[in-house]
Amino acid sequence: MSIEVKIVNKSTHALPAYATLGASGMDLRANLENTLPLQPMERCLIPTGLFISIPENYEAQIRPRSGLAIKQGITCLNTPGTIDADYRGEIKVILINLSTQVQIIENGDRIAQMVFCEVAKARLVQINELEITARGEGGFGHTGKQ
Predict the structure, then answer these.
(1) Each residue of 105-129: pLDDT tens digit?
(2) Which superfamily does CATH assign the domain made up of 6-118 to?
(3) pTM of the model
C-alpha cells in the first residue's frame, strides 16, 4: 500500500527515500548552514528544509535512527514525534546527545526517519466503570522480571 504525500523541498538535499525495498522509514537529513556541535546531554531542534501535506487520516512519525543511537549516542526526543495531517510548517527534529562526548551534526547528515501511518479517530463514550479483566490495574512491570 502506498499513499501520495505532497512535499516542498527547500533543502539542498534530495527528497527522502526508502533505503531498501523493505524499509519502513525514509531518512531525514539535517539542513544546516554550519556544522553544529552537540554537547553531552544537550538537545537541539534540527531543520530539514522539508514541508509536507499528509492525507487526512494519516500522520508522519519521526523516529530515531538506530545506527546514530548506538554509534554516537544521539537520539530523538518526543519519540515518536507526530506530524499531523493539517500541519504545514517545516519538519524539524529534536535531537539529544546522550553520549559523554561532543557530537558534530553536519549538513546532510541522516538524523531521523519518517514513517507514515494510518490514524483511527476515537469516539469517546463516558461511562461510570470499566469492565474487569484478568490484568486489572497491573502495569509498569507488574509481571516481574523473566
Answers:
(1) 999 999 999 999 999 999 999 999 9
(2) Deoxyuridine triphosphatase (dUTPase) (2.70.40.10)
(3) 0.89
